[in-house]
Amino acid sequence: MKLRLLGLTLLSGTLVLGACGNGNNDKNDNSATTEDTGNTTEEAPDNNAAGENPAGGKGDEGMQETQQGYGFKVFDLEIEVDGEDAVDADYKTDEDGTFEADYKNTLQGVDYDNDENQKEAIDELDKLFKDIILDQQMSEDEVKQNILQALDVKDYSKFDLEIEFDDGKTMKIEENK
Predict the structure, then answer these.
(1) Does residue 48 surpass a pLDDT of 60?
(2) Model's pTM, two decimal places?
């Protein structure tokens, strides 16, 4: 009976201590962690390494640097609805990693079409690029449908898209209704 009680006490104590952990409850710990990736151990990047934009770091000047690309260097989109400009999205990455972005969507009342609004333009384009996830293996129709769905455009009179992928291949879609 005493042995059973002693065993139960040890088991309970082990469970209680295991549940307590190491006592480090600091939720704002910004220290780097390591990740075991098989044969090697890599150090995780600092939380602010890519800036506020997952696509890359942001500079304070009109141009911004990208650390991770979208898979393309140039994205130029123009959509007209009933013959009127509805969406105009331009994104261009330069060889040095900087980029320029303009975004205008009259359907949503968004107009970041000048150098002073680079941050806002890339934030909007970043959302769009994450929604459409372009791949050069996709058909032109798939690309067009993904873009129209992401922008919630039901009917259009003009769809004009030019993409230059990172490897230099291009995709052009021009359609007038």
Answers:
(1) no
(2) 0.62
